[in-house]
């Protein structure tokens, strides 16, 4: 199931015994290669003295792009990991890949210090609930919480659910049965249609909404999705000796047909959140299924991009309920390169 997948589990002094070893064993039994990554090579004893582990590698010797998944167990280790700058940089770099990242119990403390939880929905040990909420995350009290690439659980009792969810994400097993059967080339053609639908939806919404900041947000996203559409179309032509892809925006997906004169900005944002999450899942599965090369790199890049768009929507949605969001206070100096004409 997971043959060829590489996973890093970050450990440090006072790591949680079972939260470190049970995910390792579960993934290894399914064919994954798992490395225990320490802050240094010192042999470590678990928080409860039930396990002693020697890191396979140090954080200084690994790169984020070498791994398909990362897990941050709880215990006392996150308190040490969160103040270790190379470890934080590794986590930040891995986050940008869009690949599965798991955190158990106190593990999200590392994500707090890495500045990654704004607009994210997660679960964790109840004792750090306020900490994750104070940095802009939404807390849910449940066994396992999946928000795009992030998979979180509360306590060791949740490990069976966590292990199953993480393994599915690692395998890219997150899409419909129909999409699982698509070849890489067919998946690319479907992606082209979806990017075109998203572009048309955001462009049309920018002409409907009255609020200037929201209008600018939709214009920005329309331009980004147009870029995705053009890049994917070029890649398709390269892979098919110049054949033009068929563009078919389906009625049950995001597209211009979803816009009506009376649609509200909130309804449009909710549609955008739903569409970006589905796009992320689709691209993650397509990347996992691809054999390598340009098409795999493109799918992974797009997965990370769509997940970031979803989180921008979530931050903006939270701002509408109080506080300030990413786009609410954008000025000329915040404009991404090449987007000057949108503000």
Number of domains: 2
Overall mean pLDDT stands at: 86
The counted number of beta strands is 11
Named at the architecture level, the CATH assignment of the largest domain is 3-Layer(aba) Sandwich
Verbal overview:
There is one protein chain. The protein has 343 residues and is of the alpha/beta class. The protein folds into 2 domains: 6-171, Rossmann fold, CATH 3.40.50.880; 177-342, Ferritin, core subunit, four-helix bundle (Ferritin, Up-down Bundle), CATH 1.20.1260.10. The chain is 48% helix and 11% strand. The chain contains 11 helices and 11 strands. The strands form 3 sheets. A 7-stranded mixed sheet has the order 5-2-1-6-7-11-10, sandwiched between helices. The protein has a two-stranded antiparallel ribbon with strand order 3-4. Helix 1 crosses helix 6, helix 8 packs antiparallel against helix 9 and helix 9 (212-239) packs antiparallel against helix 11. The N and C termini lie far apart (48 Å). The model is unreliable at 322-343 (pLDDT under 50).
């Amino acid at each position: 199931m997971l043959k060829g997948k590489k996973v890093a589990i970050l450990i440090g002094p006072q790591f949680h015994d079972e939260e470190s070893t049970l995910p390792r064993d579960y993934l290894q039994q399914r064919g994954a290669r798992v490395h225990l990554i320490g802050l240094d090579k010192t042999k470590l004893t678990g928080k409860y003295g039930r396990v002693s582990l020697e890191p396979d590698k140090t954080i200084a010797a690994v790169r984020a792009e070498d791994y398909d998944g990362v897990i941050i167990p709880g215990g006392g280790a996150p308190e040490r990991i969160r103040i270790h700058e190379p470890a934080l940089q590794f986590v930040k770099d891995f986050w940008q890949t869009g690949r599965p990242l798991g955190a158990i119990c106190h593990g999200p403390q590392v994500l707090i210090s890495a500045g990654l939880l704004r607009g994210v929905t997660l679960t964790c040990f109840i004792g750090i609930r306020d900490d994750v909420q104070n940095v802009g995350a939404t807390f849910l009290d449940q066994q396992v919480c999946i928000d795009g690439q992030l998979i979180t659980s509360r306590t060791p009792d949740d490990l069976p659910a966590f292990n199953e969810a993480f393994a599915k994400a690692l395998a890219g097993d997150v899409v419909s049965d129909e999409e699982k059967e698509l070849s890489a080339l067919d998946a690319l053609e479907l992606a082209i249609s979806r990017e075109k639908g998203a572009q048309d939806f955001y462009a049309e919404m920018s002409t409907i909404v009255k609020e200037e900041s929201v209008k600018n947000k939709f214009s920005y996203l329309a331009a980004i999705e147009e870029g995705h559409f053009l890049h994917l179309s070029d890649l398709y032509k390269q892979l098919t000796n110049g054949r033009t892809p068929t563009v078919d925006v389906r009625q049950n997906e995001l597209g211009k047909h979803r816009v009506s004169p009376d649609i509200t900005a909130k309804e449009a944002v909710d549609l955008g959140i739903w569409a970006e999450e589905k796009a992320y899942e689709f691209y993650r599965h397509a990347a996992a299924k691809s054999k390598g090369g340009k098409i795999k790199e493109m799918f992974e890049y797009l997965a990370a991009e769509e997940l970031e768009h979803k989180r921008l929507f979530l931050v903006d949605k939270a701002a509408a309920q109080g506080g300030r969001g990413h786009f609410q206070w954008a000025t000329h100096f915040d404009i991404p390169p090449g987007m000057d004409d949108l503000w």
